[in-house]
Amino acid sequence: MESQIQSLQTKALEAIASCIDESQLEAQRVGLLGKGGELTGFSDRMRELSKEEKPRIGKVLNEVRAAVTAALETRKAALTAEREAKIFEGVDVTLPGVSFPAGAIHPITQLLDRTVRIFRRMGFALADGPDIETEWHCFDALNTPADHPARNEADTFYLPDGRLLRTHTSTIQIRTLEKMAPPVRIIAPGAAYRRDEVDATHLAQFNQMEGLYVDEDVTLGDLRGTLEFFFRELFGNDAEFRFRPHFFPFTEPSFEVDIKASALGGGRWLEIAGCGMVDPAVFEAVNARRGDHALDPERHTGFAFGFGLDRLAMIMSGVPDIRHFTDSDQRFLSQF
What does the pLDDT look like over 180-194, one tens digit per residue? Predict the structure, then answer.
C-alpha cells in the first residue's frame, strides 16, 4: 500500500500542476480528498492493516495528504493571480485616475452641530421627541386656547386619529417636564410642520432650535445672558441685542430678540428669536398630568427660547431663497 500511496502522490502533483483553470483544480481536489476520493479511499483501508503497519502507513498517508493540499492551494493562488492579471491587460497605469467628488455636511446640519456645541458648553442637555404629537402636548399644555389660529386645520397638519405633526419643538420641553423634576436645562432641536405656502422664506417643514431652563430663582437676566453668550459665540463679540415685548401663550413676559452684528452686514437690526419666562400655567398643566406638584410656580421659574435654524442659516450665508436648502442641487451645496 505504501508504494501505491507514493505513486498516487506523484500522479496527483502532476495533475494539479497541469490544471488550466479553477474548475479543473476543483475536480482534482474532489477526486483526491473528497468523500469518494482516492486518498480518502486509502484512509478507509487503514483498518485492513496490522497494528505494526498502521503507524508507518498512516505517517506516509498524512505526508501525502499534506503535500497534495499544499499543491492545491499553491495552484489555486497562481490561477487567481493569472485571472486577475488578464483583467488589467491593456490598462495603462500611468494614466491619471478618475476623481470622485467628496461630499460635505449639509449647511443646516453644520449650523445645528455648531449651536449644540455652544449650548452644551453652558450645561444644556440635548432632548428629543416624536414628530407626530397630541394636541395636549402641542397646544393645551402650552396654554394655547382652543380658538387660537394655530389650532385651525388651515395652519396645522392633522392626522385622521386627531394627532398632528408638531408645529414647534416646544412639545419636547413638555415631554421632558413630564419625566423630570427641576432643575431642567435642555435644548430641543428638530423638524416642525405648518401649512405655510412654500416660497422664498417659508417651507411646510422647517428646522427649529428651542431651549428650556427651569430651576429656583431663574430670572430674565439669566435668559438674556444665555442668549447673548450664544449669539456672540455665533456672530462675534461685536453683536448687539435688544428685546422687544411680544406675546406667546406659554411665556410671560415674552420678547422678540433682535440682533445687529458686522457678521450679518452691520447696520440693520434683524429679528432672530423669540423667548420669555415660562408662564406658571404651563407648570400647572404639567403638574396635573404628572399627578404631583414637582413644578411649584411659587418656587420654580424658568425661561424658554426658540429660533429657526433655516432662517438663521439664510442670514449667516446670505442665501436669498430657503428652498435652496431642500433642492439637493449640487451647485448650491458644494459652496458649503
Answer: 999 999 999 999 999
